[in-house]
């Protein structure tokens, strides 16, 4: 869905700290505003009504519909959609406050952005911000990626129309040889497609 940002978050730390964080995450349904939920991690109390628009995005998003999974004593996994953008500011502050490592990925195909980052005790490491398509390309072969785009084209599309559907950072990554491969796949698809 457009404007829904998918998040995968892995928090690594000692068992006692993760027990505490897990309980705080479970408290989400007891809060009305995402800023209020974020504040519960840091024991902050304030007025949450009648604030300006930006106040409600202090932790990166307005809401986060997530699931919690605990596979190991030292690992907590949080997955789910947030509104418009990832809760990165919240995760960075949790990492800093609780001295845990947090790896997070986000993907928002509707507005074509994605990324990943690790926070270790609040310090940002290995940040990647890119298009959603380039992020997808990290997990697929170029051929699988191209086939996915080809499945969504209409009969009247020309190769230039097809290339306009592809993010510029993907084109930079695949280079001229990749574009030629996509072109070949495009025309093969047109010959065999029944639309």
Main sheet overview = 6 strands, antiparallel
Number of helices: 7
Strand order of the largest sheet: 2-3-1-4-5-6
Mean pLDDT: 93
What distinguishing features does this structure have?
six-stranded antiparallel β-sheet, 195 residues, alpha+beta, 7 helices
Structure description:
The two termini are 24 Å apart. The protein is of the alpha+beta class. Strand 2 and strand 3 form a beta hairpin. The chain is built from seven helices and six strands, in the order βααββαβββαααα. It is elongated and about 60 Å long. The protein has helices spanning 15-26, 34-40, 88-98, 132-137, 142-150, 159-164, 168-192; strands at 4-12, 64-72, 75-83, 101-108, 113-120, 123-130. Helix 5 crosses helix 7. Strands 2-3-1-4-5-6 form a six-stranded antiparallel β-sheet. The model has no long low-confidence stretch (mean pLDDT 93).
């Amino acid at each position: 869905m457009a404007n829904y940002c998918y998040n995968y978050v892995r928090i690594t730390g000692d068992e006692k700290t993760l027990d505490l964080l897990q309980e705080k995450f479970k408290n989400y349904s007891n809060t009305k505003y995402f800023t209020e939920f974020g504040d519960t991690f840091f024991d902050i109390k304030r007025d949450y009504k009648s604030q300006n628009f930006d106040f409600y995005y202090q932790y990166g998003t307005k809401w986060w519909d997530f699931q919690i999974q605990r596979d190991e004593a030292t690992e907590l996994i949080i997955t789910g959609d947030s509104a418009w953008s990832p809760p990165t500011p919240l995760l960075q502050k949790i990492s800093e406050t609780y001295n845990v490592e947090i790896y997070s990925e986000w993907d928002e195909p509707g507005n074509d952005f994605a990324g990943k980052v690790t926070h270790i005790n609040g310090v940002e490491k290995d940040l990647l911000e890119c298009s959603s398509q380039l992020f997808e390309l990290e997990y697929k072969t170029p051929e699988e990626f191209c086939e996915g785009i080809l499945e969504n084209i209409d009969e009247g599309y020309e190769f230039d129309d097809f290339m306009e559907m592809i993010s510029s950072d993907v084109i930079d990554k695949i280079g001229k040889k990749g574009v030629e491969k996509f072109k070949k796949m495009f025309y093969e698809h047109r010959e065999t497609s029944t639309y």
